[in-house]
Amino acid sequence: MKSLRVATIALAVGASLSSLMGVYHFFIPSIFHWGRFVTKIPGPIRWGLFSINFFFSYLLLAGGILTFVALRRAHRSLSPDRHLLIAMAGFWLANTLYQLVIPMPLPPALWLLHVVLITYAVVATLAYVAGLIALRHR
What percent of the chain shows pLDDT beyond 70? Predict the structure, then answer.
């Protein structure tokens, strides 16, 4: 029973972080006024930039929601979709590694944003991994 509680907390954190980042990304082009920076690039590339962000946002939100679904299945003594949980853990691990190897170019005044974004990705990774480990011992 303790392992289910650990899985519940960990996966709820992972699902929440994934969902929130997905929703946030839907609004990034508007928040940061991407349109004014892409006026001189070809239309298909401009379209691709916005569509990739939109589809990424959708997939991350869907992954978060499906994590909640997997968690609900675990509470009903049904087998959660571990493949989804492994994929989400992999996403967040890849995100962490990418940020460490290729940091986002930011002005020096925003150095703290690097720390926040990497911490966010590390916490999400650890949440999914902890949830998977806890489910394994259930």
Answer: 99
pTM value surpassing 0.90? yes
Model confidence pLDDT, tens digit, residues 54-83: 999 999 999 999 999 999 988 888 788 899
> How does residue 6 score in pLDDT terms, banded at 50, 70 and 90?
very high
| Cα dihedral across residues 83, 88, 92, 97: positive or negative | positive
- Report whether 33 contacts 50 (CB < 8 A): no
Q: Are 128 and 14 in contact (CB under 8 A)?
A: yes
Length of the chain as a residue count: 138
Gap between the Cα atoms of 46 and 40, Å rounded: 9
Contacts of 14 (CB under 8 A, 6+ apart): 64, 67, 88, 89, 92, 124, 127, 128, 131
* Spatial contact of 11 and 128, defined as CB atoms under 8 Å apart: yes
**How far apart (Å, rounded) are the C-alpha atoms in residues 67 and 84?**
7
